[in-house]
Write a structure and sequence with these properties.
The protein is α/β, with parallel strands linked by helices and about 270 residues long. It has two domains: about 180 residues, Rossmann fold; about 80 residues, no CATH class. Helix content is about 30%, strand content about 25%. Strands 6-7-8-3-9-10 form a six-stranded mixed sheet, with helices on both faces. Strands 2-1-4-5 form a four-stranded antiparallel sheet, covered by helices on one side. Helix 7 links the parallel strand 7 and strand 8. The chain binds adenosine-5'-triphosphate and magnesium ion.
């Protein structure tokens, strides 16, 4: 692609019913148009990156997908069925897990407790139902299994408090938590923004594991190399609209930035 005029070969759209689909979402804040008719399709086992300049509508889009905002107009479909999320818990109950950059984990709790936060298991029988005793051993065993399944080998000890982990390991716990409970979709908001090279790589590997397990991932990031490393498709937001959806094969990072800033059209 060269700037402005050249036609680009169309990006092939994956086949089948999307796991998550947004159709013509509109979200306004008074006179400010946050989203102006944005559509998006997310298919099983794909990593869809969302990029765009500041104020382009990325967070607003994600919030509409995850129940934090109710769109003014447009439709949301999960496995082809219309859904109407009124609050984040509705989206979570439907299998959409969101990992926010800072609120992801509870530092004072250990790894296993973080994985089961809000979904604690009680012991079977009277101990659990009457005395509300937690099934700590069961949760720890399952936490170990879950981490192993996701290939998080740097976290052998699930009884360590999360505050003692590195930033990357904490992020890994947050992503593992999102992936732990048969999630349909995992949404990651700037997961590598505060991380070093090694830690970022751990998170990127984790994203690839999720894809291998057919869990689709929506990844918001300003980091072009990371986006181009893991994304199957890249949704580019510009001024509240979808400017283009490209792939790392069809376009270069320079192309993507040009579309983001309006220097080129896709
Ligand atoms: N709660 C709100 N009230 C008023 N305006 C808002 C609100 N949330 C978003 N906006 C506006 O909607 C537009 C899109 O904002 P949004 O936060 O989605 O951008 P973004 O792409 O996430 O940007 P950034 O990269 O800076 O995070 C902006 O003009 C923003 O000012
Ligand atoms: Mg934002």
């Amino acid at each position: 692609m060269s700037l402005v005029t050249d036609a680009v070969e169309p990006v092939p759209t994956p086949q089948g019913v999307p796991v998550l689909e947004a159709k013509r979402l509109v979200k306004t804040f008074g006179k400010v148009v946050g989203l102006d008719g944005v559509s998006l399709q997310l298919h099983a086992g794909e990593v869809l990156a969302i990029i765009g300049d500041n104020g382009a509508g990325k967070s607003t889009l994600i919030k509409c997908l995850t129940g934090a905002y109710v769109p003014d107009q447009g439709e949301l479909l999960l496995d082809g069925e219309p859904v109407h999320f009124k609050r984040p818990q509705d989206a979570r109950d439907a299998g959409i897990e969101t990992v926010y950059q800072n609120l992801a984990v509870s530092p004072a709790l250990d790894v296993a407790s973080n994985l089961f936060l809000g979904r604690e298991r009680r012991k079977p029988g009277i101990l659990g139902t009457v005395f509300r005793t937690l099934d700590t051993a069961g949760m720890r065993a399952e936490a170990r299994e879950q981490l192993q399944r996701l290939g998080i080998s740097t976290l052998q000890d699930v009884t360590v408090a999360v505050e003692n982990l590195s930033g990357g390991q904490r992020q890994a716990v947050a992503v593992a938590r999102a992936a732990a409970f048969g999630s349909k979709v995992v949404v990651l908001d700037e997961p590598t923004a505060a991380l070093g090279v090694r830690e970022s790589n751990q998170v990127l590997e984790l994203i690839e594991r999720l894809r291998e397990q057919h869990v689709p991932v929506v990844l918001i990031s300003h980091n072009m190399p990371h986006v181009f490393q893991v994304a199957d498709r890249i949704h580019i937001q510009r001024l509240g609209k979808r400017a283009a959806t490209i792939t790392p094969r069809s376009h270069s990072m320079t192309d993507a930035v040009a579309i983001m800033t309006g220097a080129a059209v896709a």
